[in-house]
Amino acid sequence: MADETSRRVAVILLGPPGAGKGTQAKLLAARYGVPHISTGDMFRDNAARGTELGVQAKAIMARGELVPDSLVCDMVAARLRQPDAEHGFVLDGFPRTPAQAGWLDAFLENEFIDNPSGSKGLPVVIQISVDYNQLLLRLTGRRSCPAGHIYNIHLQPPRVADVCDVDGLKLVIRNDDREEVIRERLAAYELQTRPLADYYWNKGRLVSVNGDLPVPAVTGQMVRAIEQQGAAAEVKNPAGSF
Length: 242
Ligand code: AP5
What we know:
Blueprint: H1 2-5, E1 7-14, H2 21-32, E2 36-38, H3 39-49, H4 52-62, H5 69-80, E3 88-92, H6 98-111, E4 124-129, H7 132-141, E5 142-144, E6 150-152, H8 179-193, H9 195-202, E7 206-210, H10 215-229, E8 233-234
Parallel strand pairs: 1-3, 1-4, 2-3, 4-7
Antiparallel strand pairs: 1-8, 5-6
Helix pairs in contact: 2-10, 3-4, 5-6
The structure holds BIS(adenosine)-5'-pentaphosphate.
């Protein structure tokens, strides 16, 4: 895939819990050779290591609420300043509020974009739309490998029950995939994250894909959107921007 990895690609994936952001972000990141940056994974990693941030986030996540913007933005700033994000990234689960989106635009303009040229210089924003009942099925059936591979007992089962096909690790159920927490997460999405679609739509930067389709078909829609939006710029033009 030399062609794909010689490009700079910056993508933001939007969508409700269970829409397939993590599934697609991994595929796009591998395809374009850029890091997959998931704020949810970063919080879960902090919680597992017992950091101060992780302790704070763990209780909030267990209730299905959003972590305060200031904590999230500081964490994302530190991650985006890592050298591997210099040539692009796939953001999964961030931004999640209009305030986070405004912060991100300002951050990218200040720190990433050499020669801003309006919306052309900013990441492509892809909204994944999925039927509500399908979301419930996806979240209640999700099983995750500690190394990051994602399965679904109804829709994408592993070859052997509860065992990761790739590395043989035991699959686990995420703490926030309990039904009562799922409903809180979906409510938080409707209230706090859905307005983001308007934020990006009004800036002419939103592309919507049908997330009800099988995984490869969803990836195909995203790749077409990325190519068409010109989010991929040749590295041989280093003055180019996201
Ligand atoms: P986060 O980890 O970001 O969770 P989420 O947004 O709720 O999304 P999910 O990870 O549940 O779903 P997904 O869209 O990635 O779907 P997946 O690919 O796994 O956030 C968790 C918490 O952290 C938040 O509640 C909040 O507290 C906190 N947080 C994180 N970011 C924050 C921020 N920016 N601000 C404040 N707080 C923040 O797929 C789901 C299932 O469906 C899987 O089983 C998969 O196999 C299956 N599947 C996927 N695609 C398909 C398909 N096309 N067909 C069939 N099955 C499919």
